C-alpha cells in the first residue's frame, strides 16, 4: 500500500509523492528516489542533518531518538518542528504527512 506525502522543496514547489509502505524506506530515501535535493551524506545514520525537514501538519510521527535529538541540537536552521528524514520510517500512519525541506548549509 502506498501513502500520499507532500514535500515542499527549497524553491517552494510542493511535490505529492506516493510512498510505498512495504519497502522499509524512510523519508530521506523517498526524497532521493524522487530526485528531490536531499544529500543523506551519512547514509541514514542520523549523523549529518542533510535530510532535515520541517513537519507542517499534525500527523503522528515516531518518537525522536537520542541520536536524532543530538544531531538536531548541533544542526543549522533547526526549528521546533524539525526532524531528520532518515529517522522517519514510511508507514501507513504517515498518510497525508506534509513536510518542507530545510535550507542547505
UniProtKB/TrEMBL annotation:
Keywords: 2Fe-2S, Iron, Iron-sulfur, Metal-binding. Residues 1-105 form the 2Fe-2S ferredoxin-type domain. Pfam families: Fer2. The keyword Metal-binding applies. It comes from the Bacteria. The keyword Transferase does not apply. InterPro entries: 2Fe-2S_ferredoxin-like_sf, 2Fe-2S_ferredoxin-type, Adrenodoxin-like, Beta-grasp_dom_sf. This is 2Fe-2S iron-sulfur cluster-binding protein.
